[in-house]
Each structure stands twice: as structure tokens, then as C-alpha cells.
């Protein structure tokens, strides 16, 4: 079912489409390019697809499918917000686009979503691209160094961020708060890049964020998850930014567990490496995708 949301890219115009889930939630989605089918899973939880520039980088080697998760961005703002529902929604996207097999690419929390789907449905996944994730150990193992790195990267912006964090915020202040926080995710020009992330602005779904993060604490880092990763035969590319404030050693738990994995660390790049090092990102991911044809 088509809807009226044109999205301009560098060379084409994508027409947004509507994926309807089995419980009636309408998910925004779009696709562009030619080649191996790739489905992108955005981070958060509670954010929205910010991968227009990534799609432009890859559209000559892949058909890139983007979507907003339920409750996020241009999709219906309705729960429930659970891991099982997120996985079912991703399956609805695959079925809507008629993909027998796909490469899954996930960023940050979306990398966890892509990984979990690949573990559950290896027959539908020809490859996994795990971008700026945090591995499969509990979050507590890396949270403290992440917070120290965040404060150091924020520098003089930290006081204003802390002021906004500690009180109720207007919509404009909500956007300012997020831009300030996201600015720490870049090695250079953080505020400029974070403004790009927030444009257009759809508002963060904090209810979704809280619900799924609470479930993460109960299910992530288990011995069962490690065992499932050791048995996973899906070819995987891990892509990191060297200067991501989330410590890169946290990803070792996943890299050490997967039997078919390669890893690329991009120098002088942060949490969104395709933004700061687009040519290097395109080369690394493009090489991986050409082997999935």
C-alpha cells in the first residue's frame, strides 16, 4: 500500500510504502538501488531511520530497504514495545518486500535486532552487517567507560546537556538535548553531524526506549546467547568507528563467538562511521555485499 511521503536522494526519488503488521500497525518503509537486497535496522530503541546517506552510498551495489520501527519516526506510534514484537515487525518487512533472503545491516541497538533475527532465522539471512554495536556481554561491562568517554567528548557542552537532562523539556529543548547528546557520537564536527541526525525531527519515543532496554537487561549477555552465536553460520561483517565512545573492546565478545566473521575498524570515525568516513565505509561494506550475490 503506497503513501505520500517522497524522500529525495542524491540521484533518485524514493516513494515511501506502508508495511502493515499482523496486529495492524503501519510501518513506514522505502527502498532504492539495484543489487543484493539489504534491509537496514536503525538504532535507539525509540529513534527512526537516518540511513538516507548510507542508502546513497550502497545503492549501486544493493537494493536498500529502510523502515521505521513501530512507535518511531513515520510509523504508527503504538506498541507493544517488546523484543518479540520488534522481531515480528522485521519479518513483516521482509515478507512485504518479497525477500526470500536478505543481508541485514543494523546500527547500534539495531545491530542487536539484526543479530537476534539472524540467529532465529538463518535461512532468510545471507549476511549480517553489524555496525557500531556493543557485543553480546551485559551492558554493565562497558557502561562506566562509555560514560567517562561521553563526558570527555562533550567538553563544554556537558553543562547545558546536564541542565536539560535534569528537568522537563519543551519540544524544542528535547531536540536540543538530543543534538547535544548525539554530538558526542562523532570524532569531529559533532554538533554539525548531530544536527543532520535531527533533521527532520520526529521525536524520540522514550516509552519504547525504556521498555526494550528493560527487557535487554534480562536477556542480553546470557550463556545461551553466546552459545547461539558460536553456532551461527551467517557470514558477518563488523564495522566499527575507532573513536566511538562506546569502548570497542565490548564488541570482542561477539567477534570471538561468531565462526564466520570479519571486522573493519575505520580510523577517525565515531558511532556513525558512514557519516565521517563514507568512502572507506562504502568500500568495506561493498566488498562484503559483492560476495553475497
Chain-wise SSE layout:
Elements: E1 2-8, E2 13-20, E3 26-33, E4 36-41, H1 52-58, E5 62-67, H2 83-96, E6 102-107, H3 109-120, E7 125-131, H4 140-154, H5 158-165, H6 171-183, H7 190-197, H8 206-219, H9 223-230, E8 236-241, H10 252-257, E9 261-266, H11 273-276, H12 278-290
Parallel strand pairs: 4-5, 4-6, 6-7, 7-8, 8-9
Antiparallel strand pairs: 1-2, 2-3, 3-5
Helix pairs in contact: 5-6, 6-7
Q: How does this model look, in words?
A:
- The chain is 42% helix and 20% strand.
- It has a nine-stranded mixed beta sheet with strand order 1-2-3-5-4-6-7-8-9.
- The N terminus is likely disordered.
- It has one domain: Rossmann fold (3-Layer(aba) Sandwich).
- The chain contains twelve helices and nine strands.
- It is an alpha/beta fold and 293 residues long.
- Helix 1 links the parallel strand 4 and strand 5.
- The protein is globular.
- Keywords: Hydrolase.
- GO terms for molecular function: aminopeptidase activity.
Amino acid at each position: 500500500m503506497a503513501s505520500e511521503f517522497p524522500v529525495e536522494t542524491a540521484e533518485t526519488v524514493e516513494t515511501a510504502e506502508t508495511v502493515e503488521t499482523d496486529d495492524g500497525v503501519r510501518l513506514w518503509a522505502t527502498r532504492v538501488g539495484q543489487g543484493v537486497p539489504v534491509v537496514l535496522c536503525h538504532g535507539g530503541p525509540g529513534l527512526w531511520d537516518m540511513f538516507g546517506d548510507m542508502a546513497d552510498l550502497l545503492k549501486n551495489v544493493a537494493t536498500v530497504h529502510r523502515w521505521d520501527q513501530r512507535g518511531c519516526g513515520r510509523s504508527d506510534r503504538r506498541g507493544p514495545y517488546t523484543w518479540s514484537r520488534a522481531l515480528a515487525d522485521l519479518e513483516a518487512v521482509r515478507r512485504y518486500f518479497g525477500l526470500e533472503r536478505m543481508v541485514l545491516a543494523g546500527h547500534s541497538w539495531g545491530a542487536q535486532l539484526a543479530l537476534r533475527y539472524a540467529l532465529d532465522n538463518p535461512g532468510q539471512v545471507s549476511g549480517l552487517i553489524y555496525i557500531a554495536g556493543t557485543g553480546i556481554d551485559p551492558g554493565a561491562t562497558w557502561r562506566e567507560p562509555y560514560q567517562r568517554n561521553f563526558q570527555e567528548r562533550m567538553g563544554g557542552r556537558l553543562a547545558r546537556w546536564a541542565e536539560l537532562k535534569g528537568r522537563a523539556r519543551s519540544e524544542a529543548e528535547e531536540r536540543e538535548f538530543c543534538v547535544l547528546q548525539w554530538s558526542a557520537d562523532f570524532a569531529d564536527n559533532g554538533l554539525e553531524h548531530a544536527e543532520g541526525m535531527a533533521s527532520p525531527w520526529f521525536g524520540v519515543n522514550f516509552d519504547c526506549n525504556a521498555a526494550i532496554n528493560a527487557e535487554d537487561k534480562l536477556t542480553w549477555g546470557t550463556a545461551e546467547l553466546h552459545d547461539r552465536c558460536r553456532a551461527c553460520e551467517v557470514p558477518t561483517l563488523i564495522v566499527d568507528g575507532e573513536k566511538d565512545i562506546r569502548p570497542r573492546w565490548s564488541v570482542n565478545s561477539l567477534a570471538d563467538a561468531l565462526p564466520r566473521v570479519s571486522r573493519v575498524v575505520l580510523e577517525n570515525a565515531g558511532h556513525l562511521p558512514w557519516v565521517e568516513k563514507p568512502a572507506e565505509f562504502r568500500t568495506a561494506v561493498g566488498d562484503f555485499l559483492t560476495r553475497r550475490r
